[in-house]
Amino acid sequence: MKTRTLLMPSLWAAAVMTISCNVFAADEPIQPIRPVQQINLAQVELGKKLYFDPRLSKSGFISCNSCHNLSMGGTDNLKTSIGHNWQEGPINSPTVLNSSLNVAQFWDGRAADLKAQAGGPIANPGEMAASHTLAIDVLTSIPQYVTEFKQVFGQDQITIDEVTQAIAEFEKTLVTPNSRFDQWLLGDKDAITATELAGYNLFKTSGCIACHNGSAVGGNSFQKMGVVEPYKTMSTAEGVAGLTGKDADRFKFKVPTLRNVALTYPYFHDGAARTLAEAVDIMGRLQLGKKFTKEENAKIVAFLKALTGDQPAFLLPILPPSTDQTPPPKPFG
Questions:
Q1: Closest alpha carbon to 178 in 259, 71, 263
Q2: How confident is the model at residue 37, as a pLDDT?
Q3: Which of 258, 280, 254 is nearest to 269 (CA)?
Q4: Which of 85, 245, 257, 278 is most enclosed, with most CB atoms within 10 A?
């Protein structure tokens, strides 16, 4: 299957503006989100089904969309996600929107890319609690999936490599261009209000921009949580230290994207900040040593709300039915 260029008609104007106004955008430390440029459409359609299919979980109840709900900013809006048998997850679920722009995946960066990330939750006993073998057995038992995998990948046998590739290709389409702030970056000076512009200037001059920059306004570095003051939390998540074992990496997490941040509450790796105002206050004090006034805080929050872009919109996939040979779900085991 050849890779084809995909440019959504509704985003054509934004794409044209990106080309014609890139000099203006280059003057700022934040760049506009670009619409999807190249994608394998057949893999996307298959990956869309897999993303929404709860049968990849042991319970037959949890799908990728359970924790990364595309109707809710690509998150679940919970402090920590709910896993198999109502287990409390150890960490806040990051948004899947614009995740293709991240330097790595997961809060600690343990997955290099979306494909590597896609296989993790399926086999995690605290999340989907299946296994890669069980997931493949389920898919292989469903003739429509067998046919579609063969059409897309040209092979008779379904593998976890193909499953994660298809999911990753679908997730690459989940970008959110055309926010009002992007429109401002691209030359429309009336796209944001005076308050929002003042908030952006505060965001830059206060030092927030040092970590939250680029097209995703974050996601491109790992930083320590609690630079000026220590971060106090009940969470057991240690960040990069959980991978390296180094004390210097304790509480070092991937900087989250601020795109669509008005939709992705609560905030931080432990979900401790319920509102944007609370998150801005904590980040100011702990990371910058700055106590924002109420008015300053409100201006920054106003700017952050201008980062909400066009949300992914498509028809929900119709999943092929199970057969008598499909391994039955075990929601209570």
A1: 259
A2: 86
A3: 254
A4: 257
Domain count, the chain: 2
What's 278's domain CATH number? 1.10.760.10
Residue 74 lies in a domain: yes
- 36: in domain: no
> For residues 87 and 124, is the Cβ–Cβ distance under 8 A?
no
Query: Residues 260-280: pLDDT tens digits?
Result: 999 999 999 999 999 999 999
Determine the residue type at 102: N
CA distances from 253 to 56, 82, 249 (A): 28, 21, 9
Structure-block tokens of residue 298 = 């409100």
> What residues does 239 pair with on adjacent strands?
252
Model confidence pLDDT, tens digit, residues 64-106:
999 999 999 999 999 999 999 999 999 999 999 999 999 999 9
Tell me the angle at which helices 143-153 and 132-140 cross, rounded to the nearest 10 degrees. 100
Bridge partners (DSSP) of residue 253 are 223
Residue with tokens 């989100």: 33
For 32, the token pair is 């506009």
Nearest to 13 by CA among 187, 215, 190: 187
- CA separation for the pair 277, 129 (Å, rounded): 36
Q: Which two tokens stand for residue 131?
A: 């296994």
Q: Is 127 annotated in the active site?
A: yes
Residues 6+ apart with CB under 8 A from 62: 54, 83, 84, 127, 128, 129
The Cα 165–Cα 58 span in angstroms is 21
Whole-structure pTM value? 0.92
- Tokens 């960040």 identify what position? 239
Backbone angles phi, psi at 267, to 5 degrees: -115, 160
Question: Of 147, 172, 197, which marks where a domain is finished?
Answer: 172
Q: Which of 28, 45, 88, 127 is catalytic?
A: 127
Alpha helices in the chain (DSSP H): 12-20, 22-26, 41-52, 64-67, 114-123, 132-140, 143-153, 160-172, 180-185, 194-205, 241-244, 276-283, 294-305
Q: For position 17, what pLDDT does the model report?
A: 44
Task: Give the C-alpha separation, 133 to 136, whole Å.
Answer: 5
